[in-house]
Amino acid sequence: MRFLLLSAFIFLLLSCQQPAELRTGTWRGVITLQEKELPFTFEIVKQENSYVAYLINSTEKILLDEVTVRGDSVTMVLHIFDAELRARMAGNELTGTFYKNYAPNASLPFSARFGDAYRFAKHVETSLEPNFAGKYQIEFTTTKDTYPSVGVIEQHGNHLTGTFLTPLGDYRYLEGNVVDNQLLLSTFDGNHAFLFIATLSGDSIRGDYYSGKSSHETFAGVKNVGARMPDPESLTYLKDGFDRIAFSFPDLKGNPVSPSDDRFKGKVLILQIFGTWCPNCMDETRFLSQWYAENHNRGVEILGLAYERKSDFNYATARVNKMVEKLQVPYDFVIAGLDDKLEAGKTLPMLNKVIAFPTTIMIGRDGKVKHIYTGFEGPGTGVYHEQFKERFNLLVNELLSEKMTSIR
């Protein structure tokens, strides 16, 4: 009898330790922010005895390869970001939190249901009114100021995709629907959750943009096929009396690095002001990684200046090292400071200010700054991304063709 009881206890103990089955296939997730629902979809795939997930925003799929299931608990590490989806599993339902490890107070409620693949509403193929498709000249208004934007929206039936470009970058891959005559667009990239709600009156659009626990902006604009952004090469510049960038920041092993180092002399040097918490920066990093692999032997170097969420060197290097590993980045990085723009500006006092992450600084073979590009038009912007790549290559080619009149 004792043997049978002991055997039953051991069986029960082992059963409790076995992970539950997480349903594979498409899930519809919802993040609740500011009393509103921000939907997104993700896919769960089982690979032998482990799981991976893919965050889906329009045509983009972001791999999450750190998914753990223990009992009824599910944790998904959100790509390279210091954030997780933590949930309890009950059949076809997940209930939990979008948790930011670096800022727990900014965490938000999360839930998901298996088998649902729609965003805000199921896709209807028939043509519906209003038609939000088009290009818009837009102005966003915050509690402190305003900033210009270009909105690019595509509509098929009631299904919407698009993005908003700003002087600081773009809102990447947005996806949504027309519901009750309203535009509803959202994206969740693992670190940022954005929600846009708007109405259309004639050619005029007006709406609200929500992010995180409290950030809220309004926007308004009009359809305009000629909508344009400010020149990204005019926003960040060197102060009078400066023609070079000077700094000494530690690399990922703590060794000091400066633009005047011997390994950069006689070469075109591209400085990338960025942070691993910044999805636009990750888009640029992917572009630069491929570009560097194809062009490094032409006499070009890239150096990433990381401005991270915490000033602790070990924390910052861990975040950058994870990004380098996940994205297979072939160029070098230094730890430059905190992600605060004012603080970042203090580390590079020769600049008028640091406006955006990312910002790209191009230095000629003579060691002098030639171009500064604020922001980045990512792949979610379509033709704008292609124009950026064309401009980038043109500028680098010009710098490589210049005769070097002096050395660093």
Report the helical percentage: 10-25%
Question: Roughly what fraction of the amino acids lie in strands?
Answer: 35-45%
- Give, in spatial order, the strands making up the sheet with the most strands: 1-2-3-4-5-6-7-8
Radius of gyration: 24 Å
Detailed description of the structure:
The protein is of the alpha+beta class and 408 residues long. It is 18% helix and 43% strand. The strands form 4 sheets. Strands 1-2-3-4-5-6-7-8 form an 8-stranded antiparallel barrel. Strand 21, helix 3 (313-327) and strand 22 (332-338) form a beta-alpha-beta unit. The longest helix has 19 residues, at 383-401. The radius of gyration is 24 Å and the shape is globular. The N and C termini lie far apart (85 Å). Residues 3-17 have low confidence and may be disordered.
